[in-house]
Design goal:
Layout (H helix, E strand, L loop, with lengths): L6 H13 L7 E5 L2 H4 L3 H14 L7 E5 L11 E4 L3 E3 L7 H10 L9 E2 L6 E2 L6 H4 L17 H6 L4 H9 L2 H11 L11 H10 L8 E6 L8 H8 L1 H15 L3 E6 L4 H16 L15 E6 L9 H8 L23 E5 H13 L1 H5 L9 E8 L5 E6 L4 H8 L9 E6 L5 E4 L9 H6 L8 E6 L4 H15 L5 H18 L6 H16 L3 H5 L5
Parallel strand pairs: 1-2, 7-8, 7-10, 8-9, 11-15
Antiparallel strand pairs: 1-3, 3-4, 5-6, 11-12, 13-14, 13-15
Helix pairs in contact: 7-11, 7-14, 8-9, 8-11, 10-11, 10-12, 11-14, 18-19, 19-20
Length: about 525
């Protein structure tokens, strides 16, 4: 790797990479994200290389290992380019047949094709599968094109061009204004306008000029894994977004706070950071612009509470991950008492898209108050589990039935839980509700980071409330009495009800406890913890 000293050198490298690539060359792709790995995709990738070597084809056919493609239900997947023929639930033993029949003889291996749940027809091409065809995959679509260990793949699809545009053609205030015009809101749960947060951090006084840019990858909601898949599959999009944000804010120090249980994300992000530094895209005097910025990885302590901003920053400082009162917001006094800007993985990954394609383009997607797309992890009692990226404003019905394929075994849909353990359950009567920040809040739930757990007619809502209350009781930091003691008492009552010891007056007591916990708790974990009840 040669360090790039100017934007011109970056574009020359990009042109060289593209010139060496033949768009019609056969490339066999398999996803080796966490979902694929647990089902044997690493063995599938090894079998590909071994078979191509045995057939003396390794110099004429490429093999690419990528992050998650989203359709976790059918992992491991193999996609053959340029035709985009998709095979599902592939094993290492299937590879010789796939290469012999599909690559050499141009025939389709029908037994490995995806079967549509409604028509029972075999579907050959990836883009024709309803799970994919009905999404708007602005972020996730790049996962299939990138080996996360090769920065060249990211450069080949235009990576770091947004950074060049910002560093050499835009003032920091212009960057913030572009994000404002786009209408980007934080994807970590609260939906706070991103540009307002950036501007507040930029304008906040600092004792020595230090400001921090932080990526929240402490994704702790049960059933949620959107941020993990972005970090595993396309870490450079997050890195580029953070550098752009740092330039806009006036920061030279960045952190990615990663959930402890995400080892593959940590590995892939570490490789991406090292490659970015070697190419001169991170560190001192980036691309000769005079702007300095670096990023460090910090692994979380395994606590759900560390997803809260003040608890996360306390953990970064080496302290116990406990929240503090937000009389002064973290954009004014955060990490080490300095102005600190915290956004989650998905928010940062949207930034290069907005800069490259423009705020006018981005703001045309979504609803009046919620722009762009949102990634959800669609799990539970649903046929097509996986990651779905959809425009804001799509209805729950479209997500659950058109993309998710409906409820298994012909069961009736009962509810969908959104917003993580502190969110809410949206019943069947609201299945045509448009999904955006404001409409979910109006319905008594919230967007959260993007978990979406589907329930069928057999799900007991009391058991569900008990499950989430138990989770929150265990994850409470215990710093404030209402959350620590109140949740414990709520769990006792719910346990009694589920085990047949419930009393009529328990309902009134649960309601009273819920309001006290909501109003008197220190942080958002406590103030939203009664929501399941």
């Amino acid at each position: 790797m040669k360090k790039l000293r100017t934007a011109i050198e970056l574009e020359q490298l990009r042109a060289k990479i593209l010139k060496q690539r033949e768009p019609n060359r056969v490339c066999i792709v398999t996803s080796v994200g966490t979902c694929g790995l647990v089902r044997g995709s690493a063995d599938v990738a090894k079998a590909m290389r071994r078979t191509l070597s045995d057939l003396a084809l390794k110099d004429s056919i490429d093999v690419r290992t990528t992050g998650c493609h989203g359709f976790c239900e059918i992992e491991p997947v193999v996609v053959i380019y340029p035709e985009r023929i998709l095979y599902r639930q592939v094993t290492a033993a299937d590879i010789p047949e796939i290469i012999t029949e599909s690559v050499i003889k141009n025939k389709v291996v029908e037994r490995l094709l995806y079967t549509d749940l409604s028509t029972r027809e075999k579907i050959i091409h990836e883009q024709d599968i309803p799970f994919y065809s009905k999404q708007n995959r602005l972020l996730l679509d790049s996962n299939r094109l990138i080996d996360p260990h090769k920065i060249e793949d990211y450069l080949a699809i235009g990576g770091y061009s947004a950074l060049c545009k910002v560093l050499f053609d835009m003032q920091p205030e212009e960057v913030i204004e572009e994000i404002r015009k786009a209408g980007l809101r934080g994807r970590g749960g609260g939906g706070f306008p991103t540009a307002r947060k950036w501007e507040a951090c930029r304008n906040a006084p600092s004792s020595d000029g230090t400001r921090y840019v932080i990526c929240n990858a402490d994704e702790g909601d049960p059933g949620a894994y959107m941020d993990r898949s972005l970090l595993e599959g396309n870490p450079h999009s997050v890195i580029e977004g953070m550098i752009i944000g740092a330039y806009a804010i006036g920061s030279h120090y960045g952190y990615v706070y990663v959930r402890h249980e995400y080892p593959l994300a940590v590995v892939n992000l570490g490789i991406a950071l090292e490659q970015a530094r070697k190419y001169g895209l991170l560190g001192e005097n980036i691309l000769g612009s005079g702007f300095d910025f670096n990023i460090k990885i910090s692994r979380g302590g395994g606590a759900f509470i560390c997803g809260e901003s003040t608890a996360l920053m306390a953990s970064l400082e080496g302290k116990i991950g406990e929240p503090r009162p937000k009389h002064i917001h973290t954009v004014v006094s955060g990490l080490n008492g300095q102005p600190s800007n915290l956004n989650n993985v998905e928010t940062w990954a949207n930034v290069p898209l907005i800069i490259n394609r423009g705020a006018d383009w981005y703001s045309q997607i979504g609803t009046e108050g919620s722009k762009g797309t949102k990634i959800f992890s669609l799990v539970g009692k649903i046929n097509n589990t996986g990651l779905v990226e959809v425009p804001m404003g799509i209805t729950l019905r479209e997500i659950i039935y058109d993309i998710g394929g409906g409820i298994p075994n012909g069961r009736r849909f009962k509810a969908v839980q959104t917003g993580g353990p502190s969110g809410g359950c949206i019943p069947e009567s609201l299945i045509d509700l448009p999904v955006d920040f404001d409409r979910l809040t109006e319905a008594g739930s919230m967007m959260g980071s993007g978990g979406m757990i589907v329930m069928d007619e057999d799900t007991c809502m009391v058991d569900l409330a008990r499950y989430f209350t138990k989770f929150l009781t265990e994850e409470s930091c215990g710093k404030c009495v209402p959350c620590r003691e109140g949740l414990d008492r709520m769990l006792d009552i719910l346990t009694d009800i589920t085990e047949g010891r419930g009393k009529e007056e328990d309902i009134e007591l649960l309601e009273e406890l819920g309001w006290v916990i909501k109003e008197a708790s220190l942080c958002a974990l406590g103030s939203t913890a009664p929501n399941p009840v």
